[in-house]
Specification:
By secondary structure, this protein is α+β, with helices and mostly antiparallel strands. The protein has helices at about 30-35, 55-60, and strands at about 5-10, 15-25, 50, 75-80. The chain is built from 2 helices and 4 strands, in the order E-E-H-E-H-E.
Length: about 80
């Protein structure tokens, strides 16, 4: 089964999952992993990585997408 990577929205207060925002294509994954500071012990990037607002926007710009996070939402790079 192939692992898919996403930019996902989470509630900053409760840490609850809100929604998947955008799929990260494999061709962008190496750069997105750098932006998200994926740990070298997680080469497949199967963890969940909290992103600052600036890092989330950097990924969105890289993917040439337009995304708005609702008030109180944060972003993570995650896999499923």
């Amino acid at each position: 089964m192939k692992t898919e990577h996403y930019l996902a929205a989470y509630d900053r207060e409760t840490d609850d999952f809100l929604s998947y925002i955008v799929t990260i294509p494999d061709t962008y994954l190496p750069r997105v992993k750098q932006i998200a500071h994926v740990d070298l012990t997680d080469p497949e990037a199967i963890g969940s990585y909290k992103l600052s607002s600036s890092r989330a926007h950097e990924i969105v710009r890289l993917l040439d997408k337009s995304v708005e996070l609702t008030h109180g939402a944060g972003a993570r790079m995650t896999a499923r």
